[in-house]
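Could you help me review a protein record that somebody else here produced? What it holds is a sequence and that sequence's fold in token form. I have pasted the whole thing underneath without changing anything:
=====
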Amino acid sequence: MQLMPDVARKDSDQAGTSIRLPVGSEGYGLGVTTLPLDLAALAGLPAIPAETVTYGEVFTRQWVVETILDLADWRSDRDLAATRLVEPACGPGAFLHVIARRVSESCRKFDRPLAEAAGCVRALDLLPAHVAASRRVATEALVAEGWGRAEVEPLVREWVNQGDYLLSLPDQADVDVVVGNPPYIRLEDLPDQRAKVYRSLWPTMVGRADVYVGFIEAGLRSLRSGGALAFICADRWMRNQYGRALREMIAAGFAVETIVSMHDVDAFEEPVSAYPAVVVLRRRRQASVVVAETTTSFASAAASDLASWVRSGDGADAAGRGWEAARVSNWQADGRPWPAVPPAVVAALTDLNQRFPALGDPESGVRVGIGVATGADQVFITQDRALVEDDRLLPLAMARDTTTGSFVWSGHYLVNPWAVDGQLVSLPEHPRLGRYLRGHAEALGSRHVGRRQPTRWYRTIDKVDHTLVDRPKLLFPDLKATSHPVLEPGGHYPHHNLYWIISDSWDLEVLGGLLLSAIAETFVGAYCVRMRGGTLRFQAQYLRLIRIPSVEQVAPEVADALRDAFRRRDRRGATTAAMSAYGLVSWPR
């Protein structure tokens, strides 16, 4: 790999040029990617403040390092001197201690002098203090293995260097293993110019991505055919919107091999709230995936057992002290969120993903959307029926109206600036509305939408779709511990913290029974980012991941049972009837 300043060659007089990043040639649809590079932006690139780097550090326990290397199949019974391992953010040497020991054991097993391992390890870190600490750790590990300090020290100096991995470009895809615990730093916490360069180099760093997303992309691009990336890091990218581009890249040319969720495991030297997982990704075609869930009792011996079972390829599932795992044979290969549930549930969801359309797909006969966002609820929402003209008041469904499970309107209205044709109404033609909104002109005009469209300063952020008003709708409040669909019979428009479902083909009470069930709830729980306390987010992006049978596949007696369960808010009855609709004999908890 070359550091970026070396790539910014002197033979170009242009402020901008491009670079070519190898991504392999296995025919996965990736080819060689050409990315724009602003060479001028690299001159005097502001450094990441040391306090930002250290704030993003989380140091890994040695038994976790051993597990990660085992899962990546980088073990001392292989000729490691003939391989190429990269650790992109080595910190004070948690990984290098184990790496050095394994290199030593391998050299002895294959009767190699240590010098032949000079090119097998490349470790980088931003901080000089970390480089020095990592060199000491690796040196002492090799000396303790019986190698002479005189041969060890120059080798370790070659192994460990200061540098920014995200400004290091692969000369070619020639790395066997990328391992580590990348830093947790939000892009918005970086100097703007540096964040801009990172985004230009690593296109999966979108939205509010953490820098570890860039580390994963860079590592994947460096892999040779069959090479593996094995990281422990926060698992939010597997489900968040900002991880979608990375998931799509993985689906296009790499395989998900192993995911070990370790949310409650004491994996780091200090307590953190990072929701970590070990993920192993490999440059090959997608095959089965091992999905493992762990508990607080998961530790060194149990991790060794899990890694041995994964490598053995034995059985469809297994369990041990503090862990359970399953091999999922038909992993989804696209950018959708990855499930975060026990392995047996992953397998069950994968089966339904294969057999049924998603809620909101055209073939499902269902539409999903979100209510109106105003940008100024204190202005646009009222219970005063005399405030403006009658035709400018639209009955508004609020989350509080769904609390009991039946729709009970609280009397709120939307002060509606939209005509039926989708255009803003003329304020002179509605004098009471005009007087009212002009009385709030400063607040409305200072909103982003008001500044962007100053002549349309009195609009709500979202347009009102008047065709939705009179239609019966299933409403989902955003934040709930369990699935909570509520039927609104028509006549009300949803507020923005309500998600709505409509259909021309479904009896909404039958569909409501399906969506009340534990099966529908499991879909949302598997893919959404949970709030503290386990509260689920019933947002449109997650509702659309629920799989449902077609109307024709639901037998009349099953439809009757679903409808009855929905009316009685009987979640257990809804689950039993839903299992019949899906053709299931059981559903894992």
Observations:
- The two ends are 47 Å apart (CA to CA).
- The CA atoms of residues 269 and 475 lie 45 Å apart.
- The chain has a mean pLDDT of 87.
